[in-house]
Specification:
Order of helices and strands: EHEEHEHEEEHEHEHEEHEHEHEHHE
Strand content: 15-25%
Number of domains: 3
Number of strands: 15
Oligomer: single chain
Largest sheet: 10 strands, mixed
CATH architecture of the largest domain: 3-Layer(aba) Sandwich
Helix content: 25-40%
CATH superfamily of the largest domain: HUPs
Radius of gyration: 22 Å
Distance between the termini: 40 Å
Shape: globular
Structural class: alpha/beta
CATH class of the largest domain: Alpha Beta
Number of helices: 11
CATH topology of the largest domain: Rossmann fold
């Protein structure tokens, strides 16, 4: 089993080559697959593969490399702008995303940026002689031009549609623009967040009835785990309009930054009839938990006199099966929480509460990153 090849990371060609060079220096056998042989510098979705026995050591090395890249990129980043980011798939219905995105852009006095990530396709075949994978490219300059041309046509059609919605009064009149980037969707979105620090990211999800085996392949889950800005996820079929959000559940572990996150969430949602329930999920009920929840409730009741507050303790074994019935019983419109950015190893082997909620509830989810 230890000699089994596993995928360590999926990166651009340049990043994959840098990772391979460092791993080779550390005597970790490394291969690169899914390479565009004609134009390697244009390849996206390149797989860095290693032996399974080297995975713990390799993960630590890659984390250190990516941290160094982020620190280097942060030196020249522009100041935080007032933007609401809407990552989209140009083939999907986007009205739901627009409804939420434009609503919060108006509240935050921000402009809208639609972000679409695309890649040039390749296919792979396995050799019958050995276990190596040989990749043959289907891409050339002409096919790339066709992809870009088709994307530009989709952007023009969507622009006309959004302008019509604005004219018909279905959306507020907000400045919007499009950015098309080649690359892996989650990497493109997270890179944009690091560079431009939008006020909010709004993304659609399919809810709990569309769970797939590829849990960690979910673009939305990756953005939730890796983002440095607030992310709002909206189940695709939710009938709730953003203006109808009145009852909010905030999950807390009594960390100091939770207070800052709650305050930020109130800024996003502020209205006269807003009600917030502070919820702590625990394996068993402790007296101290109730004392802490009471203190949080009183703190925000004093700072926001018109805010209606309450608290609850939900007993759970970790599966979150009790969450959805509670949300339905209390008629919760939105779940909010603070989430620390987690290391790559933790994200791979232990999904966060936010990721579990993403796949187990049918309620919009607002995740702060304080």
């Amino acid at each position: 089993m230890e000699n089994k090849w596993v995928t360590l990371a999926i990166r651009t060609y340049q990043r994959a080559q840098m990772i391979k060079a460092v791993l080779d220096q550390n005597e970790i056998e490394t291969v690169i697959h899914n390479l565009n042989l004609e134009n390697p510098e244009m390849a996206v979705g390149v797989r860095v593969r290693i032996k399974e026995k080297d995975l713990p050591k390799a993960l630590t090395i890659v984390e250190e490399m990516e941290k160094a890249w982020e620190e280097e990129a942060a030196k020249d980043l522009p100041p935080k702008g007032r933007k609401v980011l809407l990552p989209i798939d140009l083939t999907d219905q986007v009205h739901h995303t627009c409804t939420y995105g434009f609503h919060f852009a108006e509240k935050l006095n921000s402009e809208i940026v639609f972000l679409y990530a695309y890649y040039t396709p390749t296919f792979t075949i396995s050799s019958s002689i050995n276990t190596e994978i040989n990749t043959y490219s289907l891409t050339d300059s002409e096919s790339i031009r066709r992809i870009i041309s088709a994307n530009n046509a989709d952007v023009e059609n969507l622009t006309n549609l959004i302008n019509k919605w604005i004219y018909d009064g279905k959306l507020p009149k907000i400045k919007f623009s499009f950015e098309l980037k080649e690359g892996i969707a989650e990497d493109v979105i997270l890179d944009y967040c690091k560079r431009h620090k939008p006020s909010l990211v709004v993304m659609n999800t399919h809810g709990r009835n569309h769970i797939t085996d590829d849990l960690f392949g979910s673009v939305t889950a990756e953005v939730l785990e890796g983002s440095n800005v607030p992310v709002l996820t909206v189940p695709f079929k939710t009938p709730l309009l953003p203006s109808e959000i009145k009852h909010v559940a905030f999950l807390t572990n009594f960390e100091q930054k939770d207070l800052i996150a709650i305050d930020e969430a109130i800024r996003f949602l502020e209205k006269d009839n807003l009600r917030i329930i502070f919820i702590h999920i625990a394996g068993k009920k402790e007296v101290w938990d109730e004392v802490m929840l009471t203190g949080i409730k009183e703190y925000f009741a004093n700072h926001y006199p018109t805010l209606k507050t309450d608290y609850a303790i939900i007993k759970s074994t970790g599966s979150l099966d009790d969450i959805q019935p509670y949300l339905e019983k209390e008629k919760i419109d939105l779940v909010a929480m603070n989430m620390k950015r987690r290391r790559l190893f933790a994200r791979l082997f232990k999904p966060s509460v936010a990721t579990k909620l993403l796949f187990n509830v049918d309620t919009p989810l607002l995740v702060m990153h304080m």
